[in-house]
Structure formats: C-alpha cells, structure tokens
Structure prediction request, 444 residues.
Amino acid sequence: MSRVTFASKMGLIAAAAGSAVGLGNIWRFPSETAAGGGALFIIIYLACIFFFGIPLMLSEFIVGRSSKSNAAGAFRILAPNTKWNYVGRLGVFSGLVILGFYMVVCGWTLFYIFQSVTGGLSSVSDFSANFETLLQNPLKQWILTVVFTFMTAFFVVSGVKKGIELSAKTMMPLLLLLLIILAVRSLTLPGASAGIDFLFKPKLENMHPSVLMSAMGQSFFSLSLGMACMITYASYFNNETDLTKTAFQVSILDTGVALLAGITIFPAAFALAQNSETITSELIAGGPGLLFITLPNLFNQMPLSIVWSTIFFVLLAIAALTSTISLMEVVTAYIHEEFNLSRFRSVLIVTIVILLLGAFSSFSSLFFNTLDFISAKIMLPIGGLFTSLFVGWYVDKKIVFAQLTNDNKISIGVRFLKAYVFILRYLAPVAILVIFIYGLWGSF
Ligand code: TRP
Prediction:
C-alpha cells in the first residue's frame, strides 16, 4: 500500500510550520520569557533552537521519512527487535499530556473570539479581572475545550491532505501579516521602549538554573520536537522534499513568529501598565494570562477594536488548531497502525482521553500547570535526547546520508555532515542532560 503524502511542497512546509507555530509561540513563549526574566531567556532559547532544535527536527524528519510509519512503528522499522520503539511510545504519551492542557488554552481562544464578536471585550475595563472570571468558571472552560477538541477531531478524521494541509496553507500567512500590524501598533505606543529593553537587554542577575531548563523546554515545545510529531508528519513527506532546507525554513518561521509575538506583547504590557513600578515584577511572576490580558488591552487602544480582536483571536485559534491537529495525528496514527483500528475509532479514543484530561485541567490549575511542566520540561527533552542518540549512534549512516541527499540528488557539505553527526552524538545529548539535571536540581 502506498502511503498518502502531502500534495505540494508549499503544503508540506505549511503543515510542518502549522504544527510548530501555535499557542506555544504566541501564548507560551511570552509568558515563559516573562517568567525567565526577559532577554537572557531569549538568548538561551535561540541557542537551543540553533544547537539542538534544528538538528533534532532534521533527525525526526529522517526517522519519519525513511520509515514511513507512525511514532512507534518508525523506531521499530529502523531498529527491529530492540527497545527503541519505546521512544515513540513515550512520544505518543507526551502528546496526550500536552493535549490535556493545550486544549484548555484553545478553549480560552474560543472564549475571546466570542467576547470579541459580541463586543463584550471592548467594554471591559479591567482585563485581568476579565481573564480571572474565565479561570474561575471551570465548567465554561471545559465546554470550550470540548468544542475545540471536536473541531480538531473533525480535521484529523478527514485525513492528511484535505484536513491538515489545506487549513495550514491558507491561514498561516494571514496570521503573520496580522502579527506584524499589531507589533507596529504596540511599538508606537508611548512608553513601549521599556518593553524592548526587557526583551533585548539581558540582566545577568536573572540567571537561575530553571531559566535554562525553561528555555530548553520552550524550544522543544515550540518546534514540536521530542514526541515524534515531526516523525509522524515526515512520514507523509514525499521523496523530493529537501529535509535540511525544510528543517531550517520551519524553524526560522517558528522562531520569527515567537519573537514577533514578544515584540507585540512586551512593549504593550509596559506601555499600558497601570503602575510602571510593579510591572517588571508582575511580569516575572507571570502566569498564563499575559497574552489574554495584554492584547485585549492593546486592541482597546486601536480604532475598530472589535474588528482587530476578532481577527486576531480567530487566527490564533487557527494557529492553535493546526498544532492540535498535529498532536492528535501522532496519537491517531499510532492507534490506527499499531492496533489496526479504523481512523475514526482511533480518533474517538484519543478524543475521550483528551476530554478527561481537559476536565481535570479546567478544574485545577495545579493539574494544568503540572501537565505543562512535565511535558515541556521533562518528557520532550527526554524524547529529544533519545532521538538524538538514535540517529547519531544507531541508525545506519547510509540511511542518514540517503535521506539528507535524497539518494544523491542534492549535495551536502562534508563539514555540515560532520557537524551534524557531532551534535547528535555528543553535543545535544550532553547539553540536554546537563541542563536537565541542573534545572531539576535548581527547581527544588
Ligand atoms: N509547537 C506547537 C506550539 O508551539 C505545539 C505542538 C504541536 C507541539 N505539536 C507538538 C509541542 C509536538 C510539542 C511536541 O504551539
């Protein structure tokens, strides 16, 4: 049976970028940056993207396209009769853990769409209180989570080509455009420069072991790495795709969107703060509300605020949707192929699990935060570590080379190849392990 593939090159990049670009960039990146004290976090984050993010994405692409199989199947095909397939299984599990809190945030975006469309948002005077009221209504959050989960399930049932590719291809460019407009508005507010300072002037006294761990976790989270998501997507790539180029393009796009979100949110947060003395400490105390408090406030500074906020939250929901689709696809492809259940039944099972986890996350912020913490800071780095070791040490270098060059059709430099293998074998595993242990030790 020949497996489905993405229809076009643009579609494939949009799908992979659609997975990467999501709430991780626009919601999680700013709040992690704030909690990590600003610029220093960003520098470490960028280093993580460059030194392990891009190489690991490439590795997931290699594993996925050479095996053309689901998360666990991919490892089994490349390493039969070994325990490597547990890395894939761990990925499937991580996917569920992520969906268990991510879907709740997706629900929040629906709430804000609703508030924008009805005009309620433009008459709010205290945006923190507005967000708090939502958090204090777990049932409402859960119902919104259910709606978003069903939307995701609908696309995943409809399959790779129609569902995933089309939605990603059309909406991504729009989101980018809108973010640029918002960034300009935010940067031109009086007092915006304090936000830029916070973002780009590192304060060394903010250095703490947990900042390293947060930045590393965020880099995995944002690029959709460490849980076989890019393995699953690359299993639908065709043989002409230039994997190296795609890994760079997707990572650059993803990082660009995150930085753009930062440039939009921080200047606005500083400029619109009620009390400029306490803003830095408030930001650092952070919390998941930053995006949902600062941006509505920014829209209110613009003419036609209802229009801006509606468009923004709709695009945010779509960016989130292309990410939840990718997360759900990992678990679905796994159940579908490993247990021989129909796609529909597989999706049904995943949906039930997500709704259960989502209920707990809606009712308990402790549960929500725990899922966020263990997935991004523990499970993804472990998944990434093993994937790096797998491609660096275990997978036959002929396969790696054939995948990188598309069977000698594209040329790659020897130096690039050497650096790549060095990163996978030594640099990434050691660095991930050190940051992980240092960070855990610093968290307690
Ligand atoms: N990267 C997405 C975001 O930034 C979330 C996501 C999708 C993800 N697939 C993933 C995170 C796989 C980790 C692993 O919102």
About this structure: DSSP finds 19 helices and no strands in the chain. The two ends are 51 Å apart (CA to CA).
